[in-house]
Amino acid sequence: MTDEKLNNGSAVALGNFDGMHIGHLAVIEKTAELCRKGLVPTVMLFDEHSLKTVTGEAPPQLMTDSERLAFLKEKGLEIKTVSFTDIKNFTPEEFIDSVLINRFNARAVVCGFNYRFGKGAAGDATLLNKLCKEKNIECLIVDEILSDSLPVSSTAIRKAVENGEIELANRMLGRCFGYTATVINGDKRGRTWGFPTINQRLPDGLVVPLFGVYESRVTADGRTYTGITNIGLRPTVGTDVVLSETHILDFSGDLYGKDVEVSLVRFIRPEQKFSSFDELIMQIKSDVSTVKGGV
C-alpha cells in the first residue's frame, strides 16, 4: 500500500458479510474496483455478529471466521475490525463522523440495498447516501440480487442448507457450501466393507446441513476428488456427535490428522437406519453408482 493511497483515503465495504454470498461479493467487487481512483479498498468487519450483541446469540455460520478472512484477502481488501459494542449506540451521524471519517478516512462507501446502521438500526441505505453526500463521500448502493427468483440473503442460505436444498444454497453462495476439518479416528468399519471413509466433526458454530447423504468434492493434499458424504448421527452404527463421514472415490492413502476440505454438491438421500450391515452396504453401493452415474 502506497503513502499516496493512504492519503487519498479508503473505499469501505459495509455489511455483516456473514455468508460471503453473491450479494456480499457484489459489494466486495465494487469496493475493490475503487482502487482505480487511488483509494484503499477496505472492508469493515465487526468483532462479533451484531445479532449476538443484541440478542445474545449469533446465527449459525456459513463459513468460519478464518475462511472469511482468507476469502477477503484473496479479493485484495484491507480488513479492519470494529467492536460492535463500541458503536452500537451511535446515531447515524455519529457513525459517519466517528467511524467512517475519523477511523477509516473514507472517501467512498459501498453497501447493499438493505444496509442498516446506527442505534436501533435507525439508518438505511438512503440515509447513508444522503449523509455521505453532505460529507463529500461517494456512496454506492448495490441493488437486490435474486437467485431462482428468490432474494439472496444469509438467512435464506442457512434455511436451504438446513433443508438439504444444497444446490440452491450453492447458487446463492456462488460456490459450494463446505467446511475444512481435521480427519479423526473412526471405527474403521467402512474399510472392511470396501468403502473406507474419513470422519470429521463440523466446525463449531457452522450451520448443520440436513442429515443425509451428499455428493461432495474433497480436497486433500492439493488434489480434488469426488466423494460421498454422510452427515448425521449414523443411526445404524450409532454416535452421539454429529459427524461428516466421507468415502472418497478413486483415492487411497492415510489422511488421519490432516485438514481436509469437503464441499457439498448435491443432496442424494436422507439419513436412515438400516436393519443390518448388509443392507447398509447395499445402499452404499447404490449411492456410489448414483454419484458415478451423475443421476
Observed structural traits:
five-stranded parallel β-sheet; 2 domains; alpha/beta; Elongation Factor Tu (Ef-tu), domain 3; Rossmann fold; 11 helices; 295 residues; disordered N terminus; 33% helix; six-stranded antiparallel β-sheet; single chain
Strand share of the residues? 25-35%
Give the low-pLDDT segments: 1-6
Biggest sheet character: 6 strands, antiparallel
The top-level CATH class of the largest domain is Alpha Beta
Structure commentary:
The chain has 295 residues and is an alpha/beta fold. The chain folds into two domains: 3-150, 3-Layer(aba) Sandwich (Rossmann fold); 176-293, Elongation Factor Tu (Ef-tu), domain 3, CATH 2.40.30. It is 33% helix and 28% strand. It is built from eleven helices and 15 strands. It has helices at 3-8, 22-33, 50-55, 65-74, 84-87, 92-101, 125-134, 154-162, 166-173, 189-192, 277-293; strands at 10-13, 40-46, 78-82, 106-112, 116-117, 123-124, 138-142, 146-147, 150-151, 178-182, 198-201, 212-220, 223-232, 243-248, 259-270. The strands form four sheets. Strands 10-15-12-13-14-11 form a six-stranded antiparallel sheet. Helix 8 (154-162) packs antiparallel against helix 9. The longest helix has 17 residues, at 277-293. It starts with a helix and ends with a helix. Mean pLDDT is 91; it is low at 1-6.
